[in-house]
Amino acid sequence: MNPVPVTVLTGYLGAGKTTLLNRILTEPHGKRYAVIVNEFGEEGIDNDLVVDADEEVFEMNNGCICCTVRGDLIRILGGLMQRSDRFDGILVETTGLADPAPVAQTFFVDEDVSERTRLDAVATIVDAKFLEARLDDSPEAAEQVAFADVLVLNKVDLVGADDLARLEARLRAINPYARILRSHRCDVPLDDILGLQAFDLTRVLQIEPDFLEAHDHEHDEAVTSLSLTADRPLEPERFMAWFQRLLAERGQDILRSKGILDFRGERERFVVQGVHMLMEGDLMGAWPEDAPRRSRLVFIGRDLDEAALREGFAGCVATP
User: Fold this and answer.
1) Which CATH architecture is the domain 223-314 placed in?
2) Given a cut of 70, is residue 55 above it in pLDDT?
3) Which residues lie closer than 8 Å to 48 by C-beta, 6 or more apart?
């Protein structure tokens, strides 16, 4: 049996991992992929943002794939191997706070996984707008860059030519081996991401000599997540005013925000996403027939004011 190729999509919060994942799942390449999505926080959003994958999506919440839920990853991979004839490869989207080394390690140190899968490449998506700040304050961001076989420098439309040259130089200083692809909304050729056979264990052992040994990964304890939900519709004007004001005033501390919302008077789901002070929102399509119309909003950041966030969100709920 030929080992199933696995591509790991990593990158810091809001860099564009799910955007790239959706491109892979929707472009007409004729291949089928099983998808494993990991999120930081108890309320999953990314699973519902993944399109056209249906039963092939496996979600792991409330823990980071590189530490607390790594056993779940091994268990899911074991289940997938029982029906590997149904797909051509596996895509693993990590949480934005993951160290990719323990994730990649899984495909070498677990005997059953290593026999039946092959780590094809680690693709790291980086946000051109906030890359330098993340490299300065987040060890995970530097680890994600160092471990990449391919670096997708995303959102290049948000920075100037001189800034791009400086960013690429900084990326090359950390990882001179990875290919750098510039992109807007992850519009890179998929042949530059998939089927590369690029993961080089020898190079990795030069970077991390103890790669094949068990070790713990510690996260910045100041970074936490908060999940907010509402079973009644939200007032759209009230919500947008509150959300925009919140990001303007507290955006430096809010690394990532994302939500799937039920707006009063709107038949479709509304998706809102933010990275620091930048935000965008759009309709996503009809609510699934078997799913309740329920708003979910997630914040990931430093020193989040939980009481104020809950109060502000509650104030956006429409009165009966």
Assistant:
1) 2-Layer Sandwich (3.30)
2) no
3) 260
